[in-house]
Design a protein that fits this description.
There is one protein chain. Helix content is 16%, strand content 33%. It is built from 3 helices and 6 strands.
């Protein structure tokens, strides 16, 4: 598994609004590294740790399941494509692309742990549960 470098904010939620069968027992403690001890990371952690009760923030972490690292699209070079288009071809052929792996997303409910820090709970997606929950 290759994970994205950052969590992406989805929305603020109340824990009781999430169906209990989506909530995992898997829990992580969040903290700052020496490299991120200041700036936006600290500000975000301070804001999240100020949330009390059952209120928290839902985040996603994109993941690529593959045996090789697939760089994000913004890191792929478009130089060859631009050079090809400069030649003004009459027919633009699309190269064969072999898919290697799959993309998935992990959801995390992040809330204050009560001691000025945060905890993140893994939230299962509907695809991960795959009909295992009785509605």
């Amino acid at each position: 598994h290759y994970y994205s470098s950052a969590l992406a904010f989805v929305q603020m939620v109340v824990l009781s609004d999430l169906p209990p069968y989506f909530i995992s027992d898997l829990e992580f403690k969040l903290g700052l590294t020496r490299n991120s001890a200041g700036g936006k990371s600290k500000l975000l952690l301070d804001q999240l740790s100020s949330l009390h009760g059952e209120v928290g923030a839902l985040f996603i972490l994109p993941c690529s399941v593959s045996s090789i690292l697939i760089p994000p699209s913004n890191q792929l070079s478009t130089k060859k494509w631009k050079e090809y288009l400069v030649r003004k071809p009459k027919v633009i052929s699309v190269p064969y692309v072999e898919m290697k792996g799959e993309m998935c997303t992990y959801y995390f409910f992040i809330q204050s742990s009560g001691d000025g820090e945060c905890k993140a709970r893994l939230i299962h997606s509907a695809n991960q549960i795959s009909g295992a929950a009785a509605l």
